[in-house]
Amino acid sequence: MTKVAYVNGMLIGDDGEARVINLLVENGIVTGKGYLPDETEDDITIIDCKNCYILPQVLGINTPPNTPNVTGTLGPLGQGHAYPWIPINTLLDADIPTDGAPVVGVSVTLNQDTVETVDTLLTKLANLPFPIIVSWGTVFDPTEFQAMLTCLKRHNRSIILEAVNSGQLLATALTAKKHIPTIAVSASLDAFFESDSAYFIEALNANVLDQLYATTTPEDTILLAFMIARLTQTPLTTLLSRIAWDTPRLFTIPSGVSLGKPAGFLVVDPNLFLPVVQAKHNQAPIPEGFIRTSVV
Q1: Which of 21, 78, 179, 279 is the most exposed place for a label (fewest CB within 10 A)?
Q2: Residue 277, SS3?
Q3: Lowest mean pLDDT among 9-13, 23-27, 35-39, 95-99
Q4: CB-based burial, 198-215: b 16+ in 10 Å, e otherwise
């Protein structure tokens, strides 16, 4: 039996707090949390994570971008879709199951899907409790946006809003939260440098961004979080606890490391932040140890 203890690491996103903790992993399963069993060092491999962050495995971290998750889905999925969510208009002529089979998620695109169409289909699919992701269209129409949120609220479903990469991000998030307090707002980390970052900073400070995602590599995702934390004076633990990779397939954000569950956490060494930036700048290999997984 393989036993590995990760000691002295700062666990992020667990019970809403960041704290130093020890974790014991046996054959890939978390069996100890907050303590170490009374065993000799010969029986266990000790990995010292002092001054490092431990992140619960973020969504899709080992999955190439745009790879569909076809488990339990309804409708077509393929390379033509930016994310593995089923566009609601593809359900117009779909053979809808009547047994309540699970659907991973359905996307609604503003300024493309009409409120009437969405209302009709959600009424038709009332027996399928799938979540909805609201994607951005080419033009922002405040009236239509509010009408769509009102429609979605009436159907009482879990909703995530994919925030825009523009200066209207803050106003959009605030408007969404006003209509549906439980809505989860997701914003692209990449957008921080692609648009007016002042709105991004305000949205972070207003605490209306529930999730941050990136479509680059896992290393770049975490690296970008470090950069934004420095530029915005936002606590790094706050950013790291919100990270997702490649827009979430499922409708939950990792909340921590649980006993009896597979160990999929990452160990990130902040001391290597600047060397990694330098390596990126010089197009050199990233120093080993910046990101380590729990698999040894």
Answers
A1: 78
A2: helix
A3: 95-99
A4: ebbbbbbeeebbbbbbbb
Element (H, E) at 82: none
- The string of pLDDT tens digits covering residues 92-133 is 666 665 555 555 678 888 888 899 999 998 888 887 777 888
DSSP single-letter state for residue 285: P
- 280: number of Cβ within 10 Å: 13
> pTM of the full predicted structure?
0.72
- Mean pLDDT, rounded, for 196-203: 76
Q: What are phi and psi of 29, to 5 degrees?
A: -115, 135
> Over 80: is that where the pLDDT of 5 sits?
yes
| Strands (DSSP E) found in 125-242 | 132-135, 159-162, 184-188, 211-214
CA distance 146 to 142: 6
Q: Please state which CATH class domain 3-57+260-293 belongs to.
A: mainly beta
Length of the chain: 296
From the centroid of its chain, how far is CA 44? Answer: 32
Retrieve residue 94's tokens: 């779909």
As a whole number, mean pLDDT of residues 218-243 equals 83
Q: Which of 59, 18, 68 is nearest to 186 (CA)?
A: 59
The CATH number of the domain covering residues in 86-245 = 3.20.20
pLDDT of the residue at 15: 59
Domain boundaries along the sequence of the chain: 3-57+260-293, 86-245
The Cα 165–Cα 196 span in angstroms is 9
List the one residue out of 78, 127, 85 whose CA is nearest residue 109: 85
Torsion angle defined by CA atoms of residues 146, 245, 261 and 289, in that order, rounded to the nearest 10 degrees: -150
| H or E, element range at 37 | none
Question: What pLDDT is stored for residue 168 in this prediction?
Answer: 67
Q: 240 and 55 in contact (C-beta within 8 Å)?
A: yes
The SS3 assignment for 225 reads helix
Contact status, residue 90 vs residue 47, Cβ threshold 8 Å: no
